[in-house]
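REVIEWER CHECKLIST
Item 1: Sequence provided? yes
Item 2: Single chain? yes
Item 3: Sequence as submitted:
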Amino acid sequence: MKYLCILKIVFVVLLVLIISTLILGLCKEKMKNGTNNTDDLTYFKNRINLISIKNPIKINSIYRNIKIYVINMQKDVERKMHMIDLLNKLNFTNVEFVTPIKITEEYNTKYFKHSNMCNSGKSLMLTVLNILHYNKDLEFFIMEDDIDIYSNLSINLVLDEHYSKRKDLLYLEFCYIPCNQLYKEKNCDILYALNNNVSCTGCILYNKDAVKKILDAFNNNNNLYKYPIDQAYRMINTITKQGYPIFRQNIKFNSNIFTSARYNKKNNTLFDPVCTSNS
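Item 4: Structure as written out by the authors:
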């Protein structure tokens, strides 16, 4: 009788594993064959969680030591504590906080002579490029300090998929993409964007190929310094990208970028929208 009970338990466990594997396999297959049906995407446009997820799925041991740079001004202690708590919940272990570069007249003369960007946008660009230049890791995240998780999609699943495709940049946050240019998986509730349709810089995973392409592009084309960094990335047509809206800005934080719709909560904007009405 005892052995019969054990066999029943083993059978149930195996059945659950088989079903889970089939579902995951279906999701991955559909992630390769997305749809851009606008009617389907209306679901995602309206599916906005206003409450962040308090107990997100933890990163597994394979990914937990990926280097993370968090851009954080020294005065923004609350944001730093927020990111420490968030990354601890996710089980990331290799985190470094980076103070943004202060824009001086020397920087304006050297890089931004023909740019109308605000100083906060210039600072973000130079800070990111500085990280790319000095980083020694083969892959790493650069995160802004106001993000939070608003999606139940497992980062582990997304990273598994990313490493099977090897895009240059993996975005775990994006915004302001025309809804009819996104892809949705009906059975898996997965939304994603590809290549030049991906924008916003809240959380990006870089690899060494991406770093080389970006630094080479900026070294060879001074016009890239005219534009916000996410727009400049879209102008580098050698970079391949894929994005998933796992993170969004936490609604309790204003944007530090003067031109952002969320700067001092202009127009009562809580979030940069994942997608917008199609043009």
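Item 5: Key structural point noted by reviewer: The chain is about 40% helix and 15% strand.
Item 6: Recommendation: ____
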